[in-house]
Design brief:
- By secondary structure, the chain is α/β, with parallel strands linked by helices.
- The chain folds into two domains: 132 residues, no CATH class; 217 residues, Spore Coat Polysaccharide Biosynthesis Protein SpsA, Chain A (Alpha-Beta Complex).
- 53% of the residues lie in helices and 14% in strands.
- The protein is built from 15 helices and ten strands.
- It has an eight-stranded mixed beta sheet with strand order 3-2-1-4-7-6-8-5, with helices on both faces.
- Helix 4 links the parallel strand 2 and strand 3.
- Helix 3 packs parallel to helix 4, helix 12 packs across helix 15 and helix 13 packs across helix 14.
- It is globular, with a radius of gyration of 22 Å.
- It holds the Pfam family Glycos_transf_2.
- This is Chlorobactene glucosyltransferase.
- GO terms for molecular function: transferase activity.
């Protein structure tokens, strides 16, 4: 009985993959979802300030082997136009020169506090444990802003965060910085993160209807009101999550907290990965757990993404060469709808507009990274910066 049902499902899936009408209907739905999400995604305006709210802010930076970018990050945070400010960085077992860079900056500016990370307890992943220690050290702060060490910020970033949180009465805010893309592999991998968030998750639906499974966030800059952070259980509640940002968004949705994703293109930037190996390793770490960690739905999802966003480019060429007008027209319509999603997301988040043309390649590269992620997590090889994440 189970085998028969499985064969039936596979036949339906194969039929759907061949059905251009179904793909076009799906793409129209993706466009509508993206439009709704993007309309509900504020842009942090450089120069904006809150009207009345002036919370004591702690910016908390976990750093492990971040010698390459930690100075730019920390100095940009110390340059914030905000009076009640503390910057706390934790050196989480770095084996490069991160600690030396932090010690030098601390000697120059007493507002910087540097912590030495404690050994990783059982059941915790590295980033949640580092962030939990940071939050404990910032017990007097009303607003906690967690910032990744590969980010840097304009002097008005904190004021813009506080302004949006005050105006929209938010408990949590996920800021997506402008992504600096250094080469081909970065350009073909990193943009899939904000694109997937806007097109295939739905922060807007999560907020409107309380749909936790539709919630998602990017943890490069993640701000919490103190009471909301504690109500969520802090990083202890996500201690075993490789995608702790998504877990926080879903937890906030279940608890009825107010939260948003915002574009930080005017006030923040990030060089998430540098080069092919880092880009693939980063997605290998994140993709499988971020998409639920269930093999069959994960494989089906990526198969469908390839059919909807990559295959039409191939079908357009092959159909044109073979003179199949109907197939060529369908593929062209699918490509236009897919390109529309990439163009809209690129404009909102400050990504290169040429992603509208490169979208099929980005999804193909994402599928390649997704296969690596599945293999790494299923074989217990998933790791990041020398730490095992699975197995």
């Amino acid at each position: 009985m189970i085998a028969r049902a499985g064969r039936y499902v596979l036949r339906l899936a194969a039929r759907a993959l061949r059905d251009d009408r179904g793909v076009l209907a799906y793409l129209a739905g993706v466009c509508a979802n993206a439009a709704w999400n993007l309309r509900n995604t504020p842009v942090l305006a450089d120069g904006s300030r809150p009207e009345r709210w002036r919370p004591a802010v702690a910016v908390l930076v976990p750093a492990r082997n971040e010698e390459r970018g930690i100075e730019r990050c920390v100095r940009s945070l110390l340059a914030q136009e905000w009076e009640a400010l503390r910057v706390i960085v934790i050196d989480d077992g770095s084996t490069d020169g991160t600690a030396d860079v932090l010690a030098r900056i601390q000697q120059e500016d007493g507002r910087l506090t540097v912590l030495r990370g404690s050994p990783l307890p059982d059941g915790w992943l590295g980033k949640p444990w580092a962030c939990a220690q940071l939050a404990e050290a910032a017990a007097d702060a009303e607003l906690l802003v967690f910032a990744d060490a590969d980010t840097w910020h304009g002097p008005g970033m904190l004021a813009a965060v506080a302004a949006v949180m005050e105006r929209q009465r938010l408990d949590m805010l996920s800021v997506v910085p402008r992504q600096e893309l250094g080469g081909m592999w970065e350009r073909w991998t990193v943009p899939i993160i904000p694109w997937a968030l806007m097109t295939h998750l739905s922060p807007a639906a999560a907020q409107r209807f309380g749909l936790a499974l539709a919630a998602g966030a990017v943890g490069q800059v993640l701000a919490f009101r103190r009471e909301a952070y504690e109500r969520l259980g802090g990083h202890r509640a996500v201690r075993g999550e490789a995608a702790e940002d998504v877990a926080f968004a879903r937890g906030a949705t279940r608890m009825g907290l107010r939260w948003r994703v915002a574009s930080g293109r005017e006030v923040s930037a990030c060089r998430m990965y540098q080069g092919r190996s880092e880009a693939l390793a980063g997605l290998e770490k994140n993709l499988f757990p971020a998409m639920g960690g269930r093999t069959v739905p994960y494989v089906l999802a990526w198969t469908w993404l390839l059919r909807a966003f990559t295959w039409p480019a191939l079908a357009l060429v092959s159909g044109g060469l073979a003179g199949r007008r109907r197939a060529t027209a369908a593929a062209g319509a699918e490509l236009i709808l897919g390109a529309a999603t990439w163009l809209a997301v690129a404009r909102k988040f400050g990504l290169p507009l040429r992603l509208a043309a490169e979208g099929p390649v980005v999804v193909a590269a994402g599928a390649f990274a997704a296969a690596r992620s599945l293999a790494a997590w299923r074989t217990g090889r998933a790791a990041w910066k020398g730490r095992r994440l699975a197995g």
